[in-house]
Design a protein that fits this description.
Number of helices: 8
EC number: 2.8.1.13
Number of strands: 17
Main location: cytoplasm
Catalytic activity: S-sulfanyl-L-cysteinyl-[protein] + uridine(34) in tRNA + AH2 + ATP = 2-thiouridine(34) in tRNA + L-cysteinyl-[protein] + A + AMP + diphosphate + H(+)
Strand order of the largest sheet: 12-15-14-13-16-17
CATH superfamily of the largest domain: HUPs
Family: Belongs to the MnmA/TRMU family.
Pfam families: tRNA_Me_trans (PF03054), tRNA_Me_trans_C (PF20258), tRNA_Me_trans_M (PF20259)
Structural class: alpha/beta
């Protein structure tokens, strides 16, 4: 297959920087563009070094993966550079991730990484190298819009859809970003890797949180923030103190397992009061949410976000990466604040997660999104002396 990046000038004189993580997707992007005659430069970011994480299967942007990216570049005959972004990654992604958990949120570090390290810092590096575009292996489409500019659209392979993690891409960034895998199924990507003779053709996919060894994010936070796992009370919505937890960072809204409660009924985390170190639990129906407040809105729809109709814009919204986009209505509350009405309701909406907007007609175009705010704090019930001492 051939790839048209919709850039001015012939490929031979068009430099494209490819963000190479060492995985099959970005490697195939580099291979397709090199085969298409583009002047390809591969760049790999060294983002972290957490010992075991650098060698485990499914990691990215660490030791073995940097080696794999270099081998792929050698096979393709393209220049390859490794940039040390460890301090920047910690400042922009890891530290805010840890603080967000301590604040009682459930953060998404991949969103923060795309908004800072990859699509700000790396994009600046691509410009400095004289590139006309930065290409990545994300599964999402970028298309020219009839009125000018480019828009984001869900990919052909719905099972690989990464639009939830890329809603924060700005219109200015989209002008220089390209996503060549948007129209390809994963199986075909791996087949192309085999055709190109790439050693990563059968390499496992990377994990969602690349810098967390063995998925134990609480261990990482404890290392960054000693004493973060301070215990506290588990309180029922009706005010009963039911037990003790091992630190709010180990829980998320909607969680049922791991509460270690014996009360004769299934209970779920309904709210996390980080300031009071309190988990508030209740029955499943208490998780139902119909309206969420969203901060740090990035708008990719037509017109200005502040010009949305007073009655709100009909759209679809996703409140978790694993959930489908559902009917919603978006109302602008300020330049980067929104109220989102979830028309069918959602269960277990967690502060810190993203609420991503899609067009109402097809659900394919990404209109933007933001971070779900915590609901107004409700004072936790006062504990008796005996309860507080437990």
């Amino acid at each position: 297959m051939t790839v048209d990046l919709e850039l001015p000038g012939p490929p031979a004189v068009t430099r494209v920087v490819v963000a190479m993580s060492g995985g099959v997707d970005s490697s195939v992007v580099a291979g397709l563009l090199a085969r298409g005659g583009y002047d390809v430069v591969g760049v790999t970011l060294q983002l972290y070094d957490h010992g075991a994480a650098t060698a485990r299967k499914g990691a990215c942007c660490a030791g073995q993966d940097i080696h794999d990216a270099r081998r792929v570049a050698e096979t393709l005959g393209i220049p390859h550079y490794v940039l040390d972004y460890e301090s920047r990654f910690r400042e922009a992604v890891i530290d805010p991730f840890a603080q967000s958990y301590l604040d009682g949120e459930t953060p998404i570090p991949c969103v923060a990484c795309n908004q800072t390290v990859k699509f700000v810092d790396l994009l600046d590096t691509a410009k400095q190298l004289g590139a006309a575009a930065l290409a990545t292996g994300h599964y999402i489409e970028s298309r020219a819009l009839p009125g000018g500019g480019r828009g984001l659209f869900r990919p052909a392979d719905a099972d690989r859809d990464q639009s939830y993690f890329l809603y924060g891409t700005t219109p200015e960034q989209l002008a220089l970003l390209r996503f060549p895998l948007g129209r390809l199924p994963k199986a075909e990507v791996r087949e192309i890797a085999r055709e190109l003779g790439l050693i990563v053709a059968d390499k496992p996919d990377s994990q969602d949180i690349c810098f967390v060894p063995n998925g134990r994010y609480a261990d990482v936070i404890e290392k960054l923030k000693p004493g973060a796992s301070e215990p506290g009370p588990i309180v029922h919505l009706d005010g009963r103190v039911l037990g003790r937890h091992e630190g709010v960072l180990r829980y998320t809204v909607g969680q049922r397992r791991g509460l270690a409660l014996s009360v004769g009924e299934p209970l779920y985390v309904v709210r996390i009061d980080a300031a009071a170190k309190t988990l508030v639990v209740g029955p499943r129906e208490a998780l139902e949410t119909r309206v969420v407040r969203v901060r740090d809105v990035n708008w990719l729809g037509d017109g200005a976000f502040g010009d949305l109709p007073a009655e709100g814009l009909a759209a679809r919204a996703r409140v978790r990466s694993t959930r489908p986009a559902a009917p919603a209505r978006i109302r602008a509350l300020g330049p980067r604040e929104a109220e989102v009405e979830l028309l069918a309701g959602e269960s277990g909406v967690a502060p810190g997660q993203a609420c991503v907007f899609y067009d109402d007609a097809t659900g394919d175009r990404v209109l933007g999104g933001g971070i779900i705010r915590a609901p107004e704090r409700v004072r936790a019930p006062a504990l008796s002396v005996s309860e507080a001492a437990r």
